[in-house]
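ok, trying the design again with the full structure, not the truncated one.
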């Protein structure tokens, strides 16, 4: 994989909190490789599961090559106390989500006070 990593765009979640506390910020650690664009944004979004509605988002400029980044994802005080997930995307500058270079997501997070559901 290491040899191929230099040739393809990828995003891989490395560490996310298991429980999200409304009114705080969650640290999302990501490893990525950017080769398919000169400039891109690495973003993390907190999503409401089911209707796939974005609750909050953050992002930062990605550097070319293979790198790691910590993104500080806000968890709003009024975030819904229901099933959520975190998605990270690598998107070329000026492009939309549909034109992303790479994506990763995890459903292994929950809002504080909720039980984790098995799927």
């Amino acid at each position: 994989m290491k040899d191929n990593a230099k040739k393809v765009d990828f995003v891989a979640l490395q560490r996310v909190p298991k429980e999200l506390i409304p009114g705080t910020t969650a640290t999302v650690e990501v490893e990525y490789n950017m080769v398919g664009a000169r400039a891109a944004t690495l973003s993390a979004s907190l999503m409401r599961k089911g209707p796939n509605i974005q609750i909050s988002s953050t992002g930062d400029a990605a550097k070319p090559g293979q790198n790691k980044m910590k993104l500080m994802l806000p968890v709003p005080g009024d975030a819904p106390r229901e099933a959520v997930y975190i998605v990270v995307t690598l998107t070329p500058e000026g492009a939309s989500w549909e034109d992303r270079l790479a994506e990763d997501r995890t459903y292994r997070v929950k809002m504080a006070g909720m039980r984790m559901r098995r799927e």
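Keeping the full-length input from now on. Helices lie at 2-5.
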